[in-house]
Amino acid sequence: MPDLLNPRQLPNNLEAEQAVLGAMLIDSRCIPDVLGAIRSDDFYMDVNRNIFETIYSMFNYSMTVDPVTVIDEMRKRGLETEGSSDYILKLMDITPTAAHVMDYAAIIRDKALLRRVADAGTEINDLAMESQGSADDILELSEQKIYAIRQGRAVGGLEPVSKVLVDVYTQLTEAAKTGKRIPGLSTGLYDLDSAMMGLNKSDLILVAARPGMGKTTIALNIALNVAKTSGKTVAVFSLEMSREQLCMSLLSSEAQVDRKKLQSGALGDDDWRRLAAASVSIGGMDIRLDDNPMLTVADINAACRRVKDLGLVVIDYLQLMQSASGGPPKYGENRTQIVSDISRMLKIMAKELNVPVICCSQLSRANESRQDKRPMLSDLRESGAIEQDADIVLALYRDDYYNKESERPNVAECIILKNRRGETGTVELRWTPEYASFASIDNRHEE
Q: Which of 254, 258, 226, 223 is nearest to 237 (CA)?
């Protein structure tokens, strides 16, 4: 059995590497497919990696790719070595056809993944044996390394802008093909989507409000819409409500059945029909609920890493979360510092998982002492660095909450206090408390 710690015996398949390069030289039409499946550091042999990088560069500059041009380009790039010309010509001889190139590419990728697992195992073993940090720190770093391998990327490190540009152009091309007016996932509230360009990958979105304003409701409404329209998995972590309460809110919103009826069981025939249809609809979505009240960011991060095709993470709510360690505060550490650390970790988690993260947050009572009770960024409870870490901060305000004689009952203002993707401002929403739902308002005909 080969020793994986010996670099000379790490998993590789020389024949597959040669077959892929030969196919790219024989038929340049297969190059786009190959470049989408593997990358240069998937090759084990240095000479094969150099040839692949040369073809990659030539393709990006729309240059003709064949044995003669590749040899010439390698010479210009200083990558030609003794025998490299003969080796490239040999690749043509040993590859009769490009028909099975993607099968060979899959083998290369598989062997590269095995090598990365072996490398990560060596690093983790060294960290554990040298006791560099606490056991929890080493476990967290280990999970990060394995998750990064699964996602097909490295942990940190400098990335050439040329490669980033390729990713950006890929995103632009996909957006142009789909014709979507927003780049991110839809909240289901079109005015809000327009203002913040949807829910975008790696964004931390804070939904802040006083108790009773509906921050949990709007977060669940968004989760329901994302699961319904994207087909992706939505993970909901509630530190306040039980799974059953969450599910009841989802049912009330989807079925448009009064929450009080659901709680009391006083349901008519039409209510039961609506609930049955809503149950089928929600049951077909991949929404996962966790109601553990003792969760830490590390717990949430670890759970989400194990979810395939994750689309959105919802957390309710920030101030109830445990400190990083999950234990009692350290000596001299106040709650504001703990919450600031948690918010920073949430932003790091959003970037690592590469999905939008919605986190509900409490507002302090400061707004209630003002004549205009609309929230401000400074009202964030134990704010610390929360507003710095969040990409978008949404605050909910309802005039009828404070003024029972309000001229605009059941109208909620979603105030965009911070927006890294656009302007701040206010989006008006229709609030229907009996159905636990928010909806967009068409103001064009209201004056």
A: 223
Contact predicate 104/96, CB 8 Å: no
The separation between CA 155 and the C-alpha centre of its own chain, rounded to angstroms, equals: 15
CB burial class (10 A; 0-12, 13-18, 19+) of residue 220? buried
Looking at the chain, the number of H-run helices and the number of E-run strands are 17, 9
- State which H helix or E strand residue 234 sits in: strand 233-238
The model scores a pTM over 0.85: no
CATH architecture of 1-179: Orthogonal Bundle (1.10)
Marked catalytic residue, from 53, 80, 143, 240: 240
Cβ atoms within 10 Å of 46's Cβ, excluding its own: 10
Q: What 3-state DSSP class applies to 325?
A: coil
Query: Where are the chain's structural domains?
Result: 1-179, 182-445
Spatial separation of the C-alpha atoms in residues 114 and 96, rounded to whole Å: 28
pLDDT per residue of the chain (447 residues) written in tens, 0 to 9: 444 444 457 888 999 999 999 999 998 888 888 887 888 888 999 899 999 989 988 887 778 889 899 999 988 888 888 888 889 988 988 887 888 899 999 999 999 888 888 888 887 887 788 776 677 777 777 777 776 776 665 545 566 776 667 667 666 776 666 556 677 888 888 888 888 888 988 899 999 888 888 888 999 999 999 999 888 999 999 888 888 888 888 888 888 888 888 877 778 888 888 888 888 888 888 999 988 888 888 788 878 888 888 999 999 878 788 765 554 555 455 667 777 778 888 888 898 888 999 999 888 777 777 777 888 887 775 555 677 788 999 988 888 888 888 778 888 889 998 888 878 888 888 888 888 788 888 643 343
Instruction: Provide the strand spans (E) within 239-355.
Output: 287-290, 310-316
Residues 372 and 396 sit within 8 Å (Cβ to Cβ): no
One-letter amino acid of 412: A
Residue 240 bears catalytic tag: yes
One-letter amino acid for residue 400 of the chain: D
Side chain identity at 85, as an amino acid letter?
Answer: S
* Architecture, CATH, for domain 182-445: 3-Layer(aba) Sandwich (3.40)
417 and 395 Cβ atoms separated by less than 8 Å: yes
Instruction: State the sign of the Cα–Cα–Cα–Cα dihedral 133, 136, 142, 145.
Output: negative
- Find the length of the chain: 447
